[in-house]
Amino acid sequence: MFKILKKDGRAKRGEFITVHGTVQTPVFMNVGTAAAIKGAVSTEDLKEIGTQIELSNTYHLHVRPGDEVIKKLGGLHKFMNWDRPILTDSGGFQVFSLAKLRKIKEEGVSFNSHVDGRKIFMGPEESMQIQSNLGSTIAMAFDECPSSVAEKAYIRDSVDRTTRWLERCIKKMKELNALEDTVNPHQLLFGINQGGIYEDVRIEHAKRIGEFDLPGYAIGGLAVGEEHSEMYRILDAVVPELPGNKPVYLMGVGTPENILEAVERGVDFFDCVYPSRNGRHGHAYTSFGKINLMNAKFETDDRPIDEGCGCPVCRNHSRAYIRHLLKAGEMLGMRFMVTHNLYFYNNLMAEIRDAIDEGRYSEYKKNKINGFRMGEEGEKNV
Amino acid sequence: MFKILKKDGRAKRGEFITVHGTVQTPVFMNVGTAAAIKGAVSTEDLKEIGTQIELSNTYHLHVRPGDEVIKKLGGLHKFMNWDRPILTDSGGFQVFSLAKLRKIKEEGVSFNSHVDGRKIFMGPEESMQIQSNLGSTIAMAFDECPSSVAEKAYIRDSVDRTTRWLERCIKKMKELNALEDTVNPHQLLFGINQGGIYEDVRIEHAKRIGEFDLPGYAIGGLAVGEEHSEMYRILDAVVPELPGNKPVYLMGVGTPENILEAVERGVDFFDCVYPSRNGRHGHAYTSFGKINLMNAKFETDDRPIDEGCGCPVCRNHSRAYIRHLLKAGEMLGMRFMVTHNLYFYNNLMAEIRDAIDEGRYSEYKKNKINGFRMGEEGEKNV
To answer: Nearest residue on chain A to B330, judged by CA atoms?
Structure first.
């Protein structure tokens, strides 16, 4: 299922083969929370900007329109009109971050919907059931996401529960895949490593979940506010302890620089809301760092966002026009920003894959990060 | 400049030839108020949905980003990246409807910007100057838009002033087109007929402005709330009094039925915010009338908005998906709705042109309107 084509240091160039097509790794998954990319970007657009795999959120889709509705309509692929791979998260992260008044028990978590306050219970079986209804290509195990600065004793207990929940996820997913009316009988399950910032807990957990021989493993709980150096330290410790023949997915990370550093540490899958969220606020990624299109200096700037960029927006529209659209509150401005930023991330991954293929990853990474820090005029970006 | 290819009753099939290309008439102009179609529809999308001519609003662009900025960037065509014809309104309608504390004098109108309250003066010369800076294909004369139910005496005075303003517009436009650094030296000017609901005032005014031999004539002041039968009565009276060899533009109108009726009365150009505004509120135009996608009955409806529709949205997405996007507040839902509705209007005009070409307009119109009234199930639409 996962073929490693080439290694360059710890960076891996791979192919992840699924029933919905093959993903070239390292890859950045484009986030479409509620079965849509924020910023009016369509699935047709995604193909144009090189998106290989889309990520949707189980919690959001369970709440609206409901996973039963999506199942009735033939699953998430048909619902969104997207025939390439989709990864769904477990709902766990949203339950622990969005929902109010949650209560964690061995069976799962009780909480109130952020949309209508309705009481919902979600445990490993419920999460698998919902993801099975969605019929995603890759389902994520239901885990607890404790605060990364929680006490070590709490983290240990939480990680133990996450392991027990993983066993229940595996069992349930197997049953669901075998059902006659299942949307995707080949649905894959990735396990999630937790353990906060404690290397020993992380490593012990990585070894335990590695034994389940799952098609992929994620590292969770590193996208929520810790220092970048902490994240890299944990990656240095934990990636080598996960099965070497399976893809590693670093959840919710991150900046272009984070991704470049994590690829060097052996990570294969990424997702993050930065390109769409920053885009909606006027921040564009470029080869010379981020620029804020709301800035007055772009008022009559007829250049594209990034002259080196091949995205549909840079091929057709100027900074001045996009700035005007953003200032005027025209949705089209947000669409252009998000399209450009997603292309930037997708294209960064394509460059990364080329660099690994050609055995020059470390050099590539260094130059790329230097570029980001230089600014357009060759001065330090601030 | 305007070639009449065929007449079918009073309905005309024509070609309007400009420096930015030829417009096949009757035509519906797609409204992009602030140099963008509301609902994140790009100029690339407009080409895909058969848009021949785009309309932008002088008042909005004067206030933001400023017509001087747009001139500096090479004019509105370059700014928006749209190489087909653009019509700009005169700003008059917005001044009379949006702006607060306006004061009308012979020279023009003083008012406060709706964006920042800044005091602005606009008269015929200012309107021409702004439209010249924008470099649109067709500029509209600066007119007064009195309430259609104003007293006849007021309307008479107002129409007289509108005629005097038209003379000043013609003079100013000629001067501007001759300037070395003008954006579009071939900018065309359309005159506007006013006169409220008084046939005699309308007819007298039509005759007077007809003498100026302008490249086109608009009928203003009929989109602001009067009964449809009143509008048709005025069209019956006034269209035959305008020069028969020039296109007639009915400003701000209207529903598909209004357009079908007005074409039969000799109208060639239309514009209206209905398709985009209704789209943003979940209302889709179809061959069997309007439907509201927010309606619960569409929750699991996997059919396209209109099975007979060839638009990019109907080719790719279901009612259930679009409904979900709208309910979830995803911009993509609005983009889909506006795209479909604009295609509907553009396609309606293409059908109208075919029907006139083939000399079966009256029959076509009758069947089309009957269809709108039938509803999807063949029952009366409500």
So the answer is: A38
State which residue of chain B sits closest to A37, comparing Cα positions: B332
Binding-face residues of A in 335-374 toward B, CB within 8 A: 335-336
- pLDDT of B339 reads 98
Q: What are the distances in angstroms from CA B225 to CA B102, B229, B272, B276?
A: 21, 11, 13, 19
Question: In whole angstroms, what is the distance from residue A108 CA to residue A144 CA?
Answer: 9
How close does chain A come to B71, measured CA to CA in Å?
Answer: 10
Question: How far from the centroid of its chain's Cα atoms is residue A223's Cα?
Answer: 10
CA A130 – CA A145 distance, rounded (Å): 19
Four-way CATH pick for B2-272: 3.40.50.300, 3.30.420.40, 3.65.10.10, 3.20.20.105: 3.20.20.105
Q: Of the candidates B300, B312, B331, which has its C-beta nearest A331's C-beta? A: B331
**Catalytic annotation on B116?**
no
Angle between helices A199-210 and A228-238 (to 10 degrees): 40
Q: Where are the domains of chain A?
A: 2-272, 279-374
pLDDT in tens, A346-375: 999 999 999 999 999 999 999 999 999 988
Per-residue model confidence as pLDDT tens digits over A290-326: 999 999 999 999 999 999 999 999 999 999 999 999 9
pLDDT, one tens digit per residue, over B81-113 is 999 999 999 998 888 877 666 788 999 999 888
* Contact between chains at A69 and B320 (C-beta distance less than 8 A): yes
ipTM above 0.95, yes or no: yes
Q: How far apart are CA A2 and CA A17, in angstroms?
A: 6
Shortest CA gap A7–chain B (Å): 40
CB contact under 8 Å between B65 and A320, yes or no, is yes
CA angle A55, A60, A63 (to 5 degrees): 145
For residue A133, give how far its alpha carbon lies from the nearest alpha carbon of chain B (Å).
14
